[in-house]
Write a structure and sequence with these properties.
single chain; about 160 residues; mainly beta; Phosphatidylethanolamine-binding Protein; 5-stranded antiparallel β-sheet; 1 helix; 8 strands
Length: about 160
């Protein structure tokens, strides 16, 4: 069985609904709901001890992309995150850790590319991890989480959402 991620919130390659776009509270000029999307995954390989989830915009005009969501240490028995799980007040599975994004804090921060820019790609990736827990805390950067994932990922699967304003 192939490792695969899907969502009830959007289909791969579709534009993300307004609920999942950054809210006005962040001051970037968008007015969405800032609700993390539903994600579910199947086909994790044998030896998976935990999962990690990221949302990354490779099109951000930063020279290094933009990390919108970083979650690690999701227990191996979990195969789904409900819509809103990564948002303020959302329910993450026990043991899961949200770490710092490029917004400077843990938790989901929705898309909000510059006005009149081309559509940006938002890659929601689920990693099957061969360790129970990555060495991380809520202030660990996405780059450090990515470094650890590089050496501990057994498989990964992605789904892409788009957004343009």
């Amino acid at each position: 069985m192939t490792f695969k991620v899907t969502s009830n919130s959007f289909k791969d390659g579709d534009y993300l609904p307004k609920d999942h776009i950054l809210s006005a509270d962040f001051g970037f000029g968008c007015a969405g709901g800032n609700v993390s999307p539903h994600l579910t995954w199947t086909g994790a390989p044998a030896g998976t001890k935990s999962f990690a989830v990221t949302c990354y915009d490779p099109d951000a005009p930063t020279g290094s992309g933009f990390w919108h969501w970083v979650v690690c240490n999701i227990p191996a028995g979990v195969t789904e995150l409900a819509a809103g799980a990564g948002s303020a007040g959302g329910k993450m599975p026990a043991g899961a850790l949200q770490s710092r994004t490029d917004f400077g804090a843990p938790g989901y921060g929705g898309p909000c590319p510059p006005e009149a820019d081309h559509p940006h790609r938002y890659l929601f990736t689920v990693f099957a991890v061969g360790k129970d827990k990555l060495d991380a805390n809520a202030d660990t950067s996405a780059a450090v989480i990515g470094f650890q994932l590089h050496f501990n990922t057994l498989a990964k699967a992605s789904i892409m959402g788009l957004f343009k304003r």
